[in-house]
Amino acid sequence: NQEILQQDVASLKQKVDDMQYVSYDGTLIWKITSLHEKMSKVDAQSERQTSIYSPPFYSSATGYKMRARLYLNGDGNARRTHMSLFFVLMRGPNDAILKFPFNYKVTFCLYDQTPQQRHIIDSFRPDIKSNSFQRPRSEMNIARGIPK
């Protein structure tokens, strides 16, 4: 019982934290702190696929609910060579009035905070046949994006 209660409290805390950063204009500004620490944990557990999720955000006040998913040690053919960044369509409160499949261009902009400023910008158009862009039937659809 104690463990279940702790999980519930952690889940509620995460939801409150996520609400502090919610955006309603289709833009996510996700500052990932302690990246070196997170990366060292990945190195220690290199056989385990480690990913982190951004807080949810929306395309508009009555729009699509979305989030980003970052694989710190890469995914698929980028494993152990690059980070992989993906777009995740989530079940949202306005899905009944939205058009599916989701068919809007997705652009990722990774801004390098070092003096070198090696920013990475990439975009993709959804494959409207993919289940990833259909109306979500569970909390989150399968992530799609840029493996490296």
Automatic annotation (TrEMBL):
InterPro entries: MATH/TRAF_dom, TRAF-like, TRAF1-6_MATH_dom. GO terms for molecular function: tumor necrosis factor receptor binding. Residues 25-148 form the MATH domain. GO terms for cellular component: cytoplasmic side of plasma membrane. GO terms for biological process: regulation of canonical NF-kappaB signal transduction. It comes from the Eukaryota. This is MATH domain-containing protein.
